Amino acid sequence: MKQILEPYDITREREMMLPLDYNRRSQLKHYDKTYKAEITNIIRLTEMEKLFQVRIIDDTERERFTFLPGQFVMVEVPGYGEIPISISSSFTHKGFIELCIRKVGLVTTVLHNAKRGCKVGIRGPFGTHFPMEQMRGNNILLIAGGLGLAPLRAPIFHVIENRSYYKDVYILYGTKESNLLLFTYQYEEWDRIADINLRVIAEQGSKDWKGEIGLITDLLDEVDVDPGETNAIVCGPPVMFKFVCQRLTDMGIPMHRMFVSLERRMHCGMGKCCRCNIGSTYTCVDGPVFDYWTVMNLQEAI
Ligand SMILES: Cc1cc2nc3c(=O)[nH]c(=O)nc-3n(C[C@H](O)[C@H](O)[C@H](O)COP(=O)(O)OP(=O)(O)OC[C@H]3O[C@@H](n4cnc5c(N)ncnc54)[C@H](O)[C@@H]3O)c2cc1C
Ligand code: FES
């Protein structure tokens, strides 16, 4: 008999933000399931990163699978292992999910060598999400460094699809070198079509780089918003979001309105194995998305 999974929708945000309790744990039972999936398309983004389109094979399961911006899945490569990867696509795209994967070690290298049609397992979705519904009516700063644009892409799609709900929207993106920039083919759409202020900066530019040179924090000098009506989502390495969140605090944006995604080594993804904990907080179920005030109160979080 087929397992019936309840689909998520964005209006369930408040329920999803509840702290880990008995009900939440029972909800997690759904996620023991591994969906059989196949890689349907692979796009090379840079030397180190590829974008994978992954499709759940069973029609009913594919139709029911849904997630919220900021959540992640466990990707199983049979015989090699299972790794957590943020979902990088819009939850309104029903046929597939997109995963932007950097080649760093065993499983990610096997995936980078995979061809279209290769089979993988998908568990999830797991974790907390960016509270997009709560942010409605406000300005939004979407800020990413390096690979941080991968998890940020899901909230970017959400804002584009629901543009009228938000006031001024900024996407600020920075990398160490200009040739490491991800998703360059989407910038024009984000900037012009979606009425979003997109600013891109690199610490070092290649010969043909005509954009800005500097640090991601330099881009914040050009942001003109009322801090009392502004939320921020910050994704990237901890050292980056430490500086960025400090600047946002100086601008007057309260810490509880800034959201970051924390990465830890993970194994089960569902609060069972104790691999990802920071004290009594499990990054896989209590996170990976936290508000910055919570992060500041978690010892050794960053
Ligand atoms: C919630 C979450 C979301 C993630 N989303 C993405 C994503 O969208 N795209 C992406 O490319 N990666 C993402 N990662 C990181 C990804 O899971 C690791 O790069 C992957 O597990 C490495 O597997 P591997 O077998 O290739 O490397 P391994 O052979 O296991 O390790 C290779 C190297 O990578 C380091 N490493 C492994 N796992 C992590 C980790 N979780 N954090 C930091 N360093 C690690 C190891 O210390 C080692 O130096 C995410 C991690 C988490 C926890
Ligand atoms: S990954 Fe197992 S408890 Fe978080």
How much of the sequence lies in strands comes to: 25-35%
Helix content: 10-25%
Cα-to-Cα separation, first versus last residue: 45 Å
Order of helices and strands: HHEEHEEEHEEHEHEEHEHEEEEH
Largest sheet: 7 strands, mixed
Count of individual helical segments: 9
- What fold name stands as the CATH topology of the largest domain? Rossmann fold
**Class per helix and strand makeup:** alpha/beta
Question: What is the class of the largest domain in the CATH system?
Answer: Alpha Beta
* CATH homologous superfamily designation of the largest domain: Nucleotide-binding domain of ferredoxin-NADP reductase (FNR) module
The overall average pLDDT, rounded, is 86
Count of the domains: 2
Shape: globular
CATH architecture of the largest domain: 3-Layer(aba) Sandwich
